[in-house]
Task: inverse folding
């Protein structure tokens, strides 16, 4: 009996010691990682205290998020989780199962701009037939193997063999806020610059048919882009007629162009970004609208960075993706090799390479950093061989990393601001720099994301 009691107390003691050890480990801040190699992102930072955040409860919520997101050994624990799932047995493929809320996309309603609260079209009671034809099937090639019917839906992602797609779900409120903030930016910059807008489809728009997307329960990206461009064109036309806007917003519809090249390597298979080649085609579409000259692709030095497992792998942890990593191909300008960035973590301006080589990027997750070394609050690129005083500002998220280097041979100055981190006054900056061309460059997922919409709205607050 005494031995049994002793063993019970021993188990309690060992469990308590283990629990206490994990608690102590969790509070050792010097062991907490700042970047996740496994997920390819900077982890949550400890929040800055403010009375307003504390009283609202946001401060303690952010501490809770910081504690769980930066727990020591998190990447090792993720690997253990993947290994455990691999022991579950036979994996059958499933087609369907999308359970994310989405709104219907209006295809006919009128948009009327009223300051602060534009009149928006009513939601249709019955969805119309999709306005765009089904994407034609792509022959299976070495460049783009395409997909067949079947696959697996994993928390908003669709995986088929060695390719993953991020699924898009239309959100009326976020998309309307996006069109309003772009329009308000054009008003704020009236007389200073013309505003352009490029909404970038994801690979899902080309690698999956509308029928597959509908069966899964996701939204049609092409219909959503139609909605966005219809709103922007309506708002800006009305403001021009009211003599409140000198130049209408110019929408840059790259869907057909990207479709012409969808058999090429224009999107990654394991990551949500476009490739350097995809950014090249889109940048040429933009420059053609402006009548700017640019070098041929073979004038660039092609940098090859193999072994890339990107965000789609990190989210799904799919073994089929892990066994077929991407290769990043970056294109270095023949004239401009460096740029200036503002590093929000150091509070300093830094000069860095435009393109990073393979030996500078050691992790499997960070190969997309080959383009401008990732996301900074501010970018400035100066081409000393161009003397016409031309300049362009790219308001962007991470899709801009591969896009901006493709503009440096066509302008004397290329500026970039990442709205997620930049907090200066936009109109003052545009006027001081003498910028006459501003482009919103956003992948379509940024138009339905709470964080990106909120941070974009700081441009017009």
Result:
């Amino acid at each position: 009996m005494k031995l049994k009691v002793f063993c019970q107390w021993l188990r309690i003691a060992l469990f308590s010691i283990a629990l206490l050890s994990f608690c102590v480990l969790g509070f050792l801040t010097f062991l907490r990682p700042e970047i996740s190699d496994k997920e390819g992102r900077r982890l949550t930072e400890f929040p800055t205290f403010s009375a307003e955040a504390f009283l609202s409860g946001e401060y303690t919520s952010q501490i809770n998020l910081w504690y769980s997101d930066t727990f020591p050994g998190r990447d090792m624990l993720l690997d253990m989780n993947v290994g455990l799932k691999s022991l579950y047995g036979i994996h059958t493929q499933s087609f369907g199962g999308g359970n994310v809320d989405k709104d219907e996309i209006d295809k006919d309603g009128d948009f009327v701009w009223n300051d602060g609260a534009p009149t928006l079209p009513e939601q249709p009671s019955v969805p119309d037939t999709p306005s765009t034809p089904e994407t034609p099937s792509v022959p299976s090639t070495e460049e783009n193997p395409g997909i067949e019917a079947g696959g697996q839906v994993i928390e908003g992602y669709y995986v088929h063999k060695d390719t993953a797609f991020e699924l898009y779900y239309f959100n009326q409120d976020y998309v309307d806020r996006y069109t309003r903030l772009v329009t308000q930016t054009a008003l704020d910059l009236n007389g200073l610059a013309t505003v352009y807008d490029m909404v970038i489809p994801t690979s899902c728009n080309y690698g999956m048919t509308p029928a597959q997307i509908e069966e899964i329960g996701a939204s049609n990206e092409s219909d959503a882009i139609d909605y966005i461009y219809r709103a922007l064109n309506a708002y800006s036309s009305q403001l021009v007629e009211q003599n409140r806007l000198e130049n209408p917003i110019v929408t840059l519809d790259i869907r057909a162009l990207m479709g012409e090249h969808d058999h090429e390597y224009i999107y990654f298979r394991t990551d949500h970004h476009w490739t350097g080649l995809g950014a090249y085609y889109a940048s040429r579409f933009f420059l053609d609208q402006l009548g700017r000259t640019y070098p041929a692709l073979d004038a660039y030095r092609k940098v090859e960075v193999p072994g890339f497992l990107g965000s789609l792998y990190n989210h799904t942890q799919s073994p089929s993706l892990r066994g077929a990593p991407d290769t990043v191909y970056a294109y270095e300008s023949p004239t401009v090799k460096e740029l200036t960035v503002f590093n929000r973590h150091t509070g300093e301006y830094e000069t860095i390479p435009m393109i990073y080589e393979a030996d500078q990027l050691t992790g499997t997750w960070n190969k997309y950093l080959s383009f401008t070394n990732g996301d900074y609050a501010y970018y400035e690129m100066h081409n000393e061989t161009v003397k016409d005083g031309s300049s362009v500002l790219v308001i962007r998220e991470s899709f801009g990393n591969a896009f901006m280097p493709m503009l440096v041979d066509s302008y004397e100055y290329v500026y970039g601001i990442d709205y997620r981190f930049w907090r200066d006054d936009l109109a003052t900056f545009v006027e001081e720099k003498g910028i006459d061309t501003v482009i919103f460059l956003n992948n379509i997922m940024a138009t339905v994301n709470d964080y990106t919409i909120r941070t974009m709205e700081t441009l017009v607050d």
In short: The chain has two domains: 30-89, 152-457. The radius of gyration is 24 Å.
